[in-house]
Amino acid sequence: MDRIFLRGMRFMACHGVLPHEQEVSQPFEVDVELGLSLRTAGESDDLDDTVNYAKVYRTVSSIMNGASKQLIESLAEELAEDLLWQFSPLRWVRVTVHKPTAPIDGIFSDVGVMILRRRKDLVC
């Protein structure tokens, strides 16, 4: 299976369980990997035969900068579902949401969740 990926998309947003996380922007990073066939696009050299990366970015940005969520798990789920609905060539998506400044008492370099969703898993 061929793949398109966008890594290291950075956003300042208000997501988290604690009250101040819902009010004060903090950094998030999102990676998406999109599973689809790229054969037709590779042969045609036509943007209409693939997934437009700029549109993927806009979808991710809209969700990350949208309504506050308590859990990064919820963000990842919404991102995966929206990407699968919007881009019909996709067979699966892998979404990773990083929250490098999560309010954890300890030393760490990153906190995140990664989910994999397939088109066949969509609830109609």
List the helices and strands and how they pair.
Layout lengths: L1 E12 L12 E11 L2 H6 L8 H12 L7 H15 L5 E7 L13 E7 L6
Antiparallel strand pairs: 1-2, 2-3, 3-4
Helix pairs in contact: 2-3
Write up this protein.
The chain is α+β, with helices and mostly antiparallel strands and 124 residues long. The protein is elongated, with a radius of gyration of 16 Å. The model has no long low-confidence stretch (mean pLDDT 95). It has helices at 39-44, 53-64, 72-86, and strands at 2-13, 26-36, 92-98, 112-118. It contains 3 helices and 4 strands, in the order ββαααββ. The chain has a single domain, classed as GTP Cyclohydrolase I, domain 2 (2-Layer Sandwich). The longest helix has 15 residues, at 72-86.
Give me a quick take on this structure:
With 124 residues, this protein is α+β, with helices and mostly antiparallel strands.
